[in-house]
Amino acid sequence: MKATLALQDESGFSLVSPLKRTWSPCGQTPVVRTSLNHHQRLNLLGAVLVLYQRKRPLKLVIRSYTRTLTGIQVIAFLKQLLRTVPSEIVLVWDNHPIHQRKAVEDFMAQEPRLHVYWFPTCAPELNPAEFIWTQLKEHTASTAPHDLPELRQNITTGMAKIRRSQSRLQYCLNASGLSWI
User: Fold this and answer.
1) How many C-beta neighbours within 10 Å does residue 156 have?
2) Quick one: CA dihedral 94, 97, 102, 104, positive or negative?
3) pTM of the model
4) What is the spatial distance between Cα 19 and Cα 17, in angstroms, rounded to a whole number?
5) What is the pLDDT of residues 102-121, one digit of tens each?
6) pLDDT score, position 54
7) What is the pLDDT of residue 1?
8) Hey, what domains does the chain have and what are their CATH numbers?
9) Are 53 and 9 in contact (CB under 8 A)?
10) What is the phi/psi pair of residue 51, to 5°?
11) Taking a C-beta distance cutoff of 8 angstroms, is the pair 144, 35 a contact?
């Protein structure tokens, strides 16, 4: 079967970015600004696409939302995957409750090209898509955006960096340690 493997996951990014070490002149403590509206966030759905016979990353598909993720967004993401990939899709994702919504399950049952498998519960290290978020959080660390458009721009820049580099995508596959990829 000629199929594309879609390794899916979701993550969230807020206006309070994670901090990382930095250098500064001795006696001059670095100052990182933060936003007063720290509850705003972007939620992302993403998938690393792998042409199964090549066992190499093919593409990265991402959608972002300013609202809490629901089954509606998951279905929209699955429709995007189906438009992006002309062949059969073997979707592998975790047991997040939004994946188990009735509307999502009904949609998947109607799509003959979509074959769904589940990662074990409490094993995020097995999902190569998790390593996309790790790289993206490293890119956005200590940026402290003022508002959602600036956060979106930081994420877009980080995603472009990851998409341009096949070695970064390949790292995500290798880091998971899965023998079947």
Assistant:
1) 12
2) negative
3) 0.82
4) 6
5) 999 999 999 999 999 999 87
6) 63
7) 56
8) 3-10+38-176 (3.30.420.10)
9) no
10) -70, 110
11) yes
- Bridge pairing between strands 114-118 and 88-93: parallel
Question: Buried b / exposed e across 159-172, counting CB within 10 Å, b at 16+?
Answer: beebbeeeebbbbb
Amino acid at 21: R
Two structure tokens written together for 121 = 């519960």
122: tokens are 């409490």
Q: What is each CA distance from 40 to 16, 58, 67, in whole angstroms? A: 9, 32, 9
- Report the Cα 104 to chain-centroid distance in Å: 19
Q: How many residues does the chain have?
A: 181
Report DSSP letters for the chain, one per residue.
--EEEEEEEEEEEESSPPP------TT--------S-TT-EEEEEEEEEEETTTTEEEEEEEEEESSPP-HHHHHHHHHHHHHH--SEEEEEE---GGGG-HHHHHHHHH-TTEEEEEPPTT-GGG-HHHHHHHHHHHHHTT---SSHHHHHHHHHHHHHHHHH-HHHHHHHHHHHT-TT-
Measuring CA to CA, how many Å separate 102 from each of 97, 105, 108, 117? 10, 5, 10, 17
